[in-house]
């Protein structure tokens, strides 16, 4: 098997997820297939030896392709043709791809993607839609989303927050199961407060990422810790702060407020996927805390 065949096989291993990302971005099975095919063309023209994370690279490429397609679609609407067809793009039904479609692909697309949600997504700005889909549905970190939309991670977070509020306001049934996500966060906190290393690892995704906006001791560049065991060790180190914490929502995502001497000390924002913590963002810089869209909850 030559290098091209190996690359093609690795691409096929990612195709189902890429189709799911593109379908949620575009709401059309045919356009989603076009976006994924464009990703393959770009991959085949690239030096794959320089790509460390092929799945992440392909997701980024598909996101950029879909963003361009959405912007082009919106531009065409600004100069509508008198075709007798409605200007609003109506998404294809998730299961309307025909008998020859891949059953696994159909099932993945249909999962949590009702027609009502897709119609609501059509009302979002292309950048908002991309931020919402990639982060809320596929747990892509905001720093990666920021590179796609050419904005800062904080701006990307705000895009997703605005999109989340619009989705919830237009379609209450699309509201994520916050109660279940809070249970995951509560399990994390209980394990951290008790110093239970095994319980912490159990609630964390193996590839979990912990990001901090400031370095250790409150100085230095932003810090990053990757992996369940490493993040669990960090959580146990900061167990005293977990004991004086309160549940909250930040931009609609589950979070925890830690206090010191009756003053807000830091905010930890959690990204939950598949019942595990996949990303944690620690915000401790006093300059960042006042700008958060934060709602404290009763425990």
Give your account of this protein's structure.
- The structure is a single chain.
- The protein is of the alpha+beta class and 299 residues long.
- It has three domains: 1-81 and 102-111, Rna Polymerase Sigma Factor, Chain: A; 125-175, Arc Repressor Mutant, subunit A; 178-296, Nuclear Transport Factor 2, Chain: A, CATH 3.10.450.50.
- It contains twelve helices and seven strands.
- It has a seven-stranded mixed β-sheet, sandwiched between helices.
- A hairpin with a 2-residue loop joins strand 5 (263-273) and strand 6.
- Mean pLDDT is 77; it is low at 78-101, 103-113, 171-175 and 215-221.
List keywords for this structure.
299 residues; globular; Rna Polymerase Sigma Factor, Chain: A; Arc Repressor Mutant, subunit A; 3 domains; 12 helices; Nuclear Transport Factor 2, Chain: A; seven-stranded mixed beta sheet; 7 strands; alpha+beta
What top-tier CATH class of the largest domain fits best?
Alpha Beta
Biggest sheet strand line-up: 2-1-6-5-4-3-7
Major β-sheet annotation: 7 strands, mixed
Number of domains: 3
- The residue ranges in which pLDDT falls below 50 over 5 or more consecutive positions are 78-101, 103-113, 171-175, 215-221
Predict the CATH topology of the largest domain: Nuclear Transport Factor 2, Chain: A
**Distance linking N and C termini:** 58 Å
Strand content: 15-25%
Average per-residue pLDDT, rounded, comes to 77
Q: Name the helix and strand elements from N-terminus to C-terminus, one letter apiece.
A: HHHHHHHHHHEEHHEEEEE
CATH architecture of the largest domain, by name, is: Roll
Radius of gyration: 21 Å
So how many helices? 12
Coarse structural class: alpha+beta
Helix content: 40-55%
Annotation, overall tally of beta strands? 7
The rough form would be described as globular
């Amino acid at each position: 098997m030559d290098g091209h065949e190996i690359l093609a096989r690795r691409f096929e291993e990612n195709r189902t997820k890429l189709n799911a990302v593109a379908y949620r971005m575009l709401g059309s099975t045919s356009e989603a297939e076009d976006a994924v095919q464009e990703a393959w063309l770009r991959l085949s023209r690239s030096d794959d030896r320089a790509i460390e994370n092929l799945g992440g690279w392909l997701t980024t490429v598909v996101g950029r392709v879909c963003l361009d397609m959405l912007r082009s679609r919106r531009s065409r609407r600004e100069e509508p043709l008198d075709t007798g067809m409605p200007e609003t793009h109506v998404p294809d039904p998730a299961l309307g791809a025909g008998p020859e479609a891949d059953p696994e692909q159909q099932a993945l697309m249909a999962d949590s993607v009702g027609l009502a949600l897709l119609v609501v997504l059509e009302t979002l700005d292309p950048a908002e839609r991309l931020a919402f889909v990639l982060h809320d549905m596929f747990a892509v970190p905001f720093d990666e989303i920021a590179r796609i939309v050419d904005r800062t991670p904080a701006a990307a977070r705000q895009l997703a927050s605005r999109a989340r509020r619009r989705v919830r306001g237009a379609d209450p049934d699309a509201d994520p199961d916050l109660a279940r996500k809070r249970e995951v966060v509560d399990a994390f906190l209980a394990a951290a407060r008790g110093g239970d290393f095994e319980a912490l690892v159990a609630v964390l995704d193996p590839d979990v990422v912990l990001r901090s906006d400031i370095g250790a001791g409150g100085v230095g560049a932003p810090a990053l810790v990757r992996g369940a065991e490493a993040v669990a060790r960090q959580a146990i180190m900061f167990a005293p702060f977990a004991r004086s914490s309160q549940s909250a929502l930040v931009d609609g995502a589950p979070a925890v407020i830690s206090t010191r001497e009756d003053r807000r000390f830091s905010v930890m924002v959690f990204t939950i996927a598949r019942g595990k913590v996949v990303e944690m963002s620690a915000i401790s810089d006093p300059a960042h805390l006042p700008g958060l869209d934060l709602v404290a909850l009763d425990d």
